From TrEMBL:
Taxonomic source organism: Burhinus bistriatus
InterPro entries referenced in this protein's UniProt entry, alphabetically: Niban-like (IPR026088), Niban_1/2/3_dom (IPR059060)
Domain (Niban 1/2/3) ranges: 9-154
Protein name: NIBAN protein
Family: Belongs to the Niban family.
């Protein structure tokens, strides 16, 4: 009871007024990281479509879809996504001194983990919605891939 009132007053006067601006500042790098994940998925699926249109090879298409499933674990391809979030390091340094926020690396690492998880979900959903073995007409495969990609991105 004796701590509650001073704690509420402290939060109301010294923290709450800054929460909206802090959240807005932090969301910039986080948002750009997740946008980069989306762009990477889009680019990879477009490459699968282009490759299939050149070759018309269902076996190669299956291999490409299998490779897509490994995308979340491909650190080289995911690195540009992760780098977008590294800007949090600079933003959080200011917050660390003002609000005693520690474990900045943990915040960045968790954000990058969520990005990887998002990519895992995207490729898994893509695989579930698109099955090259069920495609009878190879002329419609590219259209089908595009529709599934758009559905996943939605």
């Amino acid at each position: 009871a004796t701590v509650s009132e001073p704690a509420q007053k402290c939060c109301t006067e010294h923290i709450q007024p800054f929460l909206a601006s802090i959240l807005e500042e932090l969301m910039g790098p986080v948002s750009s990281g997740f946008t980069e994940v989306r762009s990477l998925f889009d680019k990879e699926v477009n490459e699968i479509i282009q490759d299939f249109q050149k070759t018309n090879d269902i076996t190669k298409l299956k291999e490409n879809v299998d490779q897509l499933m490994n995308l979340p674990f491909n650190s080289v391809k995911m690195e540009p996504c992760y780098l977008k979030v590294n800007h949090l390091q600079e933003l959080l340094q200011d917050l660390k001194s003002r609000f005693k926020i520690y474990h900045i690396d943990f915040v960045i690492q968790r954000t990058q983990n969520f990005m990887q998880e998002l990519m895992e979900n995207a490729v898994y959903t893509f695989e579930q919605l698109f099955s090259p073995s069920h495609q009878a007409d190879s002329a419609k495969v590219a259209t089908s891939i595009e529709k599934v990609k758009l559905r996943v991105l939605k």
